[in-house]
Amino acid sequence: MTNNDWLGQDNRYLADAGNGHRLHPDVLAAFLSMQDAASADGIDCQLVSAYRSFDRQVAIWNRKWRGGTTLYDASGQPLNFAELSDNDKLVAILTWSAMPGGSRHHWGTDIDVYDRQRVKAWGQPFELVDSEYRDDGPCAPLSHWLDIHAGEFGFYRPFNRFTGGVATERWHLSHRATATGFEQLRNQAALEQAIHAADLAGKAALLQSLSAFYPRYVLNKGIP
């Protein structure tokens, strides 16, 4: 593998996971096995998101930076975009979305999942937020099932606890064995070069803070 692989700029190895989703072949097999087991227990585990390219992450970032979608604080409360400084916007975006090149979704090893049938029966707009995966949320049974069984298929939650980096994402699963190789490739120098070359809104502000934000958000070490 090369830097292009972990940065999301090369996807030659991906396999079709259906409905427009793509995954690393080893992860696809594990996901399908997990999906079958969940189905046997009455859980409709489906993909919300799988592989995302560097360019796709740029589009998501640019829309958020320019105010095209609501930004939230770490507790999930909406922020007033007009009142945010550049640093405020960086923190708000990075709490819930990765910078281009820094997303685990670039590898084909990580997935976002939901219970499609329960969400459909719920009949309300689905926003992929924490409350939907807890208490009486439509995906709470799925979340509980994953607590017990995800590890049997090699998956874990890389964002299971908020420490000042990425927010808690109970829907986000990573295939540990396959993701490890990509994790070991990550380095700030290659990421900085990729961001420099990208048509990225807020690029100057991001690059200025990259030394602090790389460990905090990309490596999800949070705030010491």
UniProtKB/TrEMBL annotation:
Gene3D superfamilies: 3.30.1380.10
Domain D-alanyl-D-alanine carboxypeptidase-like core stretches: 21-175
InterPro entries to which the protein is assigned, alphabetical: DD-CPase-like (IPR052179), VanY-like_core_dom (IPR003709), Zn_M74/Hedgehog-like (IPR009045)
Xref: Pfam families: VanY
CDD domains cross-referenced by the UniProt entry: DD-carboxypeptidase_like
PANTHER family from the UniProt entry: D-ALANYL-D-ALANINE CARBOXYPEPTIDASE (PTHR34385), PEPTIDOGLYCAN L-ALANYL-D-GLUTAMATE ENDOPEPTIDASE CWLK (PTHR34385:SF1)
Protein name: M15 family metallopeptidase
Source organism: Alteromonas salexigens
